[in-house]
Amino acid sequence: MKSPVKFDLTYPESLSKGKLLLKTFFGWLYVGIPHGIILALYGIWVDILVFISWWVILFTGKYPEDMFKTVVKYIRWCLRVGIYTNLMSDVYPPFTGEKEPKGGIA
Questions:
Q1: How many domains does the chain have?
Q2: What's the rounded Cα separation, in Å, for the pair 5 and 104?
Q3: Is residue 15 part of a domain?
Q4: Residue pLDDT, tens place only, 53-100
Q5: Are the C-beta atoms of 62 and 73 separated by less than 8 Å?
Q6: Which residue intervals of 1-106 are DSSP H helices?
């Protein structure tokens, strides 16, 4: 069976030294605060959806498509923030979980 999970991250040939210093000393401030607050609230909503989805799957055998898409967007957003804060990319993570952002992360 082919895995439905695909994680694609290209190797950065060069990274900005200025952004590295900015992320090192102030990353918690300009990335952690806005993304952290929104992702924390979004995470609570996703936890509620996962709980509801569990019951729906138990009784119907199907994962509700809209709930699935919401969870996928949340995971994609979390991955992008993690990639940025772990110095794997210089592209600031967008405030969305859409499939193809302009920066090309995941």
A1: 1
A2: 17
A3: no
A4: 999 999 999 999 999 999 999 999 999 899 888 888 888 888 888 876
A5: no
A6: 17-27, 33-60, 65-85
